[in-house]
């Protein structure tokens, strides 16, 4: 891919357990370390608070990486109206359809879609090309940031899933730095993490380690 959607290798998904000042510091460190995408995920917040956080994150990121909003197309639109640079959304299966998001956000927006079953993968092939930029596929390992997560795929399950779609697949759910090589060999276009950066004692160092692993030459046969 070319353009913004081609920058998928390393995603930071925010942890809504962090107070805003700490979240901004973590995102600043991660952006400096070279993450490609920051995804604002805060399911417990009001739309107004999400817009405020999106604007604050946009200022901190300062175009160093992409900013996506999890689930809320309305927040993405409103944050843009308020002057924030929001590059797109990541949608779940119960959110607005990706084709609706594309119409609202425009052709240059990045639109990701969560997919963790064969039915989801099949549904992703229905919209016309250019509607969905990538699939978020997981979970790879059990994760405390999503206690209601779907069945664990592991690396082998991820590989089987990714082989069945032409869309880039980003691995998410309990991913650690030591998983990156195996996931890339399994066909991952990128990896997405929450705790691996947000819960690290040194988020910048954690992000740099993940960046280095994501940039290393992919090795065939890694398991």
From TrEMBL:
<feature type="binding site">
    <location>
        <position position="95"/>
    </location>
    <ligand>
        <name>Mg(2+)</name>
    </ligand>
</feature>
<dbReference type="InterPro" id="IPR034291">
    <property type="entry name" value="TMP_synthase"/>
</dbReference>
<feature type="binding site">
    <location>
        <position position="146"/>
    </location>
    <ligand>
        <name>4-amino-2-methyl-5-(diphosphooxymethyl)pyrimidine</name>
    </ligand>
</feature>
<dbReference type="InterPro" id="IPR036206">
    <property type="entry name" value="ThiamineP_synth_sf"/>
</dbReference>
<feature type="domain" description="Thiamine phosphate synthase/TenI">
    <location>
        <begin position="10"/>
        <end position="197"/>
    </location>
</feature>
<feature type="binding site">
    <location>
        <position position="70"/>
    </location>
    <ligand>
        <name>4-amino-2-methyl-5-(diphosphooxymethyl)pyrimidine</name>
    </ligand>
</feature>
<protein>
    <recommendedName>
        <fullName>Thiamine-phosphate synthase</fullName>
        <ecNumber>2.5.1.3</ecNumber>
    </recommendedName>
</protein>
<keyword id="KW-0479">Metal-binding</keyword>
<dbReference type="GO" id="GO:0004789">
    <property type="term" value="F:thiamine-phosphate diphosphorylase activity"/>
</dbReference>
<keyword id="KW-0460">Magnesium</keyword>
<feature type="binding site">
    <location>
        <position position="71"/>
    </location>
    <ligand>
        <name>Mg(2+)</name>
    </ligand>
</feature>
<dbReference type="InterPro" id="IPR022998">
    <property type="entry name" value="ThiamineP_synth_TenI"/>
</dbReference>
<keyword id="KW-0808">Transferase</keyword>
<feature type="binding site">
    <location>
        <begin position="143"/>
        <end position="145"/>
    </location>
    <ligand>
        <name>2-[(2R,5Z)-2-carboxy-4-methylthiazol-5(2H)-ylidene]ethyl phosphate</name>
    </ligand>
</feature>
<feature type="binding site">
    <location>
        <begin position="194"/>
        <end position="195"/>
    </location>
    <ligand>
        <name>2-[(2R,5Z)-2-carboxy-4-methylthiazol-5(2H)-ylidene]ethyl phosphate</name>
    </ligand>
</feature>
<comment type="function">
    <text>Condenses 4-methyl-5-(beta-hydroxyethyl)thiazole monophosphate (THZ-P) and 2-methyl-4-amino-5-hydroxymethyl pyrimidine pyrophosphate (HMP-PP) to form thiamine monophosphate (TMP).</text>
</comment>
<feature type="binding site">
    <location>
        <position position="114"/>
    </location>
    <ligand>
        <name>4-amino-2-methyl-5-(diphosphooxymethyl)pyrimidine</name>
    </ligand>
</feature>
<dbReference type="Pfam" id="PF02581">
    <property type="entry name" value="TMP-TENI"/>
</dbReference>
<feature type="binding site">
    <location>
        <begin position="39"/>
        <end position="43"/>
    </location>
    <ligand>
        <name>4-amino-2-methyl-5-(diphosphooxymethyl)pyrimidine</name>
    </ligand>
</feature>
<comment type="pathway">
    <text>Cofactor biosynthesis; thiamine diphosphate biosynthesis; thiamine phosphate from 4-amino-2-methyl-5-diphosphomethylpyrimidine and 4-methyl-5-(2-phosphoethyl)-thiazole: step 1/1.</text>
</comment>
<keyword id="KW-0784">Thiamine biosynthesis</keyword>
<dbReference type="InterPro" id="IPR013785">
    <property type="entry name" value="Aldolase_TIM"/>
</dbReference>
<feature type="binding site">
    <location>
        <position position="174"/>
    </location>
    <ligand>
        <name>2-[(2R,5Z)-2-carboxy-4-methylthiazol-5(2H)-ylidene]ethyl phosphate</name>
    </ligand>
</feature>
<comment type="similarity">
    <text>Belongs to the thiamine-phosphate synthase family.</text>
</comment>
């Amino acid at each position: 891919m070319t353009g913004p959607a081609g920058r998928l290798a390393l995603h930071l998904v925010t942890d809504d357990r962090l107070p805003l000042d700490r979240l901004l510091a973590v995102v600043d460190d991660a952006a400096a370390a070279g993450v490609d995408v920051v995804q604002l995920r805060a399911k417990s917040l009001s739309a107004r608070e999400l817009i405020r956080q999106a604007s604050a994150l946009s200022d901190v990121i300062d175009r160093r990486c992409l900013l996506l909003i999890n689930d809320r197309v309305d927040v993405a639109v409103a944050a843009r109206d308020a002057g924030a640079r929001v590059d797109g959304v990541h949608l779940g299966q119960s959110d607005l359809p990706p084709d609706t998001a594309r119409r609202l956000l425009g052709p240059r927006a990045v639109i990701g879609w969560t997919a963790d079953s064969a039915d989801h993968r099949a549904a992703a092939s229905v919209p016309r090309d250019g509607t969905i930029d990538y699939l978020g596929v997981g979970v790879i390992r059990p994760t405390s940031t999503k206690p209601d997560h779907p069945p664990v795929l592991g690396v082998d399950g991820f590989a089987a899933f990714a082989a069945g779609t032409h869309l880039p697949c980003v691995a998410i759910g309990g991913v650690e730095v030591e998983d990156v090589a195996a996931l890339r060999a399994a066909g991952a276009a990128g990896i997405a993490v929450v705790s691996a950066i947000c819960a690290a004692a040194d988020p910048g160092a954690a992000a740099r380690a993940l960046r280095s692993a994501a940039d290393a030459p992919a090795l065939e046969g890694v398991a």
